[in-house]
Design brief:
Blueprint (H helix, E strand, L loop, with lengths): L2 H13 L6 E2 H6 L4 H9 L3 E5 L2 E4 L6 H10 L6 E2 L1 H7 L12 E6 L7 H5 L5 E6 L9 E6 L2 E6 L1 H10 L7 H9 L6 H10 L3 H14 L19 E2 L5 E3 L4 E3 L1 H4 L3
Parallel strand pairs: 5-6, 9-11
Antiparallel strand pairs: 1-3, 2-3, 4-5, 7-8, 10-11
Helix pairs in contact: 5-7, 7-10
Pfam families: AbiEi_3, AbiEi_3_N
Protein name: Transcriptional regulator AbiEi antitoxin N-terminal domain-containing protein
InterPro entries: AbiEi_3, AbiEi_3_N
Length: 256
């Protein structure tokens, strides 16, 4: 391998942490030609995990190493969300968490590469495309191995859980999550509520927060939150809550 190519290889190895995917399109933008990448693979510096993605040879890479590439190299908004985000921050230890599934949210009209969706990460990827919240609001950095990824903050994660109610997420379980979130920052919650486009999510969030009796709820300015008009039936045959104009499961209303 020519000296210049060795220099480029060493620079790449130093600049990128181990345990992450390297997107081929990003590498080309950084000055690494497809021909050079072929040489690196032939020399067993890197190996392919699908069309358009490389990893260091025999490196141990999990789905978060793929998320790192999507966020930092390809500029996508995809991020660990809902219960997965809570678990990564140690906020869901009291819940039944599935070790074989990761919940990810991504903005509408963003295309997630096939290499990420098709590669066997050892778990199932549940990717939800939605823009009910701004892509860059309410995210935090979580350290993983030798790198970090952006994941939903606890407040955003709860809203993402509520987005899936009742189709794939029981509301009673979200209430159990909400009960443990007694130290949210009112300003952060306020910003999320004002920016949220889902009336259902906002009403349910406020209902659960008030029911949980959190002190931070009292510092919210609900006059600035658009709660829409008309009734929302979350479940059939449930109990109607006049204040928020929602119908919730009967078993939730008897919880004190």
């Amino acid at each position: 391998m020519a000296t210049n190519n060795k220099v480029k290889l060493n620079s790449l190895l130093r600049s990128q942490p181990s345990g992450v995917v390297l997107a081929s399109s990003w590498l080309v933008d950084q000055g690494y030609s497809f021909e050079l990448l072929k040489q690196y693979k032939k020399s067993r510096w890197f190996e392919s995990i699908g069309s358009g993605a490389l990893v260091r040879y025999e490196d141990q890479v999990d789905y978060l190493g793929g998320v790192y590439a999507l966020q930092t190299q390809l500029g996508l908004s995809i991020h660990p969300a809902a219960k997965t985000a809570l678990s990564l921050q140690g906020k869901a230890h009291y819940l039944e968490m599935s070790a074989d599934k990761a919940q990810l949210f991504v903005s509408l009209n963003e295309n997630v590469p096939l290499w990420f969706k098709k590669y066997d990460w050892g778990l199932a990827l549940e990717i939800t495309s939605t823009s009910f919240l701004p892509a860059d609001l309410g995210l935090v950095d979580v350290e993983h191995k030798s790198f970090s990824v952006k994941v939903s903050s606890p407040a955003r994660a709860v809203m993402e859980c509520l987005y899936s109610v009742p189709k794939s997420q029981p509301l009673l379980e979200v209430y159990e999550i909400m009960e443990g979130l007694n130290n949210l920052r009112p300003a952060s919650v306020q910003a999320l509520l004002e920016a949220c486009k889902s009336v259902k999510v906002k009403r349910l969030f406020l209902y659960l927060a008030e029911k949980a009796g959190h002190d931070w709820f009292n510092y919210l300015d609900l006059k600035k939150v658009d709660l829409g008009s008309g009734k929302r039936s979350i479940v059939q045959g449930g109990t109607y809550v006049p204040k928020y104009q929602i119908t919730v499961p009967k078993e939730l209303e008897v919880v004190s």
